[in-house]
Amino acid sequence: MNQAQQTHAKTPVAPVGNGLAKGWSPMHGNGHRAQVLPHDPYDSTLVANVHPTDWTNPEPAPRYNLVVIGAGTAGLVTAAGAAGLGAKVALVERHLMGGDCLNVGCVPSKCVIRSSRVVGEIRDAECFGIRVRGDVEIDFPAVMERMRRLRAGISHHDSARRFHEELGVDVFLGDGRFSGSDTIEVGGKTLRFKRAVIASGARAAHPNIPGLAEAGFLTNETVFTLTERPRRLAVIGGGPIGCELAQAFRRLGCEVALLHNANHILNREDADAAEIVQQTFMREGVQLILNADVRRVERTAEGKVLHFESAGKADTLTVDDILVGAGRAPNVEGLNLEAVGVQYDKKRGVAVNDQLQTTNTRIYAAGDICMDYKFTHAADFAARIVIQNTLFRGKKKLSALTMPWCTYTDPEIAHVGLYERDAQAKGIAIDTFTIPMSQVDRAIIDGEEDGFVKIHVKKGTDQILGATIVARHAGEMISEITLAMVGKLGLKTLASVIHPYPTQAEAIRKVGDAYNRTRLTPFVKSAFQHWLSWTR
Ligand SMILES: Cc1cc2nc3c(=O)[nH]c(=O)nc-3n(C[C@H](O)[C@H](O)[C@H](O)COP(=O)(O)OP(=O)(O)OC[C@H]3O[C@@H](n4cnc5c(N)ncnc54)[C@H](O)[C@@H]3O)c2cc1C
């Protein structure tokens, strides 16, 4: 993202659970009680940037090239990019500009994960010859305060004033809804559009478990408001969000149980990759309850009791808080989509074609509201497609993007392109080359040998079709392979890229070397031997 497009909410549910204080809630909204907590100077800065309470919506222009609903990554990038090209743009946000990523997603979670990694380092310090005497005290309130400070510091990128004053976007705070074939209503004002973009995102799905709502639970929309550490935490959901936060809270000193409804955590990733993270979780004392079916929850004097079945056996677990990370629900409600002929599904979101156009040809969508890839960078690049397709009658396609992603557990799992199972399903024959991190000097030096780099190529060629990396900084390493795929560089080229020694990314070059070795067929080797003996 460039500076103009650099961006970093959803509608938090009412606060529940321990350690939550009273805080700010916006004047706008559609009945949800949004909360920014604990309302310290950092949160005040955040709110002043992303939902200033003294904001006055501007007088609408007679007609906009684009009206964008939702100021998360997808909406911000669409609005900033389009305005930068000279379009007249209105951006409508009902809660916090910056959306999930800045307020209740990537930014706060990665801040907390960073602190938890420090604990991991200290825990393992003795392996490096460093003895830490006495207890290591984890100051949970300070960890959360650091997160709020950093989040507030980043928030000016997404601020209403910056978008209005610097980028020339008309920012409207309030609930946006379609009111006619070319109009959107917000706060009693009517915005007329040539094209509209739905970028209303998604929120945490609430599982239908009897007693859960009554007992109270946290989601990503409330967990970052905690100021006290829950002693015992149950995390429901072993996908990326659940796993990242389960490991972080465990390292920060909580007793954590992770309940997942499959026989493996992170089961969308390759089993060998997920297994490494699963083993790490077990070593670190995360209690894994797999094949779990949570039947009901009750609140007792001892805590919140989860009644579940796992591997056919009924059991209970008593905790202080429950964090739900069990999927995402698209924000389709209240937009009046029916009135404008935009088809949607309450689970899958707004239906779009490959050009991100909805069933109403004047209305497009981008980001979590319509895409399987629920990532900030995916929302960002979808927004760029929407700008071209709405303003310049472009025909850019989502399917043309090469989309990497990363789960920020320790070690991280990063992936791009096809998995082996995808190749099988598509009938594509592949060769797979893998280098374990235990064969990479820098990983050995760093004590970070758990992991591998695995690259799939089209059989008999060096054309890269996909890759998975498990490593401490896999998210940093995957970009080299993504670049190769985007630039159509083969594995042979990666083998010829000189990497500084010692680096963990050398593993990628070593995968290239492994590919090159397969080109040394017995015939070629014997030809070499003959030549060398003749020239001796
Ligand atoms: C805990 C967590 C960690 C994550 N970590 C990562 C990560 O590390 N890397 C990564 O790439 N992705 C991560 N994600 C995913 C990432 O946050 C989302 O993919 C991204 O925020 C999607 O952006 P968006 O613009 O589509 O939607 P959102 O960010 O959800 O923004 C949508 C906006 O629309 C507003 N809105 C909704 N309806 C209306 C309406 N009717 N009127 C006006 N405004 C409306 C909402 O208030 C919201 O601000 C994480 C998500 C979570 C929950």
Structure description:
- The chain has 536 residues and is an alpha/beta fold.
- Helices cover 32% and strands 22% of the residues.
- It contains 16 helices and 23 strands.
- The strands form six sheets. Strands 1, 2, 3, 4, 5, 6 and 18 form a seven-stranded mixed beta sheet that branches.
- Strand 8, helix 8 and strand 9 (255-259) form a beta-alpha-beta unit.
- Helix 1 (41-50) runs parallel beside helix 5 (140-154), helix 2 (73-84) runs parallel beside helix 10 and helix 4 (106-123) crosses helix 5.
- The radius of gyration is 25 Å and the shape is globular.
- The N and C termini lie far apart (57 Å).
- Residues 1-5 and 7-34 have low confidence and may be disordered.
- The structure holds flavin-adenine dinucleotide.
- The site of flavin-adenine dinucleotide has 42 residues, from helix 2, strand 2, helix 3, helix 4 and helix 10.
Essential attributes:
single chain, 536 residues, alpha/beta, 7-stranded mixed sheet, 5-stranded antiparallel sheet, 16 helices, 32% helix, 22% strand, disordered N terminus, binds flavin-adenine dinucleotide
Query: How many beta-strand runs?
Result: 23
Task: Give the integer mean of the pLDDT values.
Answer: 93
Rg from C-alpha positions? 25 Å
Category by helix and strand content: alpha/beta
Distance between termini?
A: 57 Å
> How would you sum up the major sheet?
7 strands, mixed
General shape: globular
Helical content (DSSP H or I, runs of 4+): 25-40%
Uncertain segments of ≥5 residues (pLDDT<50)?
A: 1-5, 7-34
What is the number of helical segments per DSSP (H or I, 4+ residues)? 16
The proportion of residues in beta strands is: 15-25%
Question: What compounds are bound to the protein?
Answer: flavin-adenine dinucleotide
Looking at how many chains there are and whether they match, the oligomeric state comes to: single chain
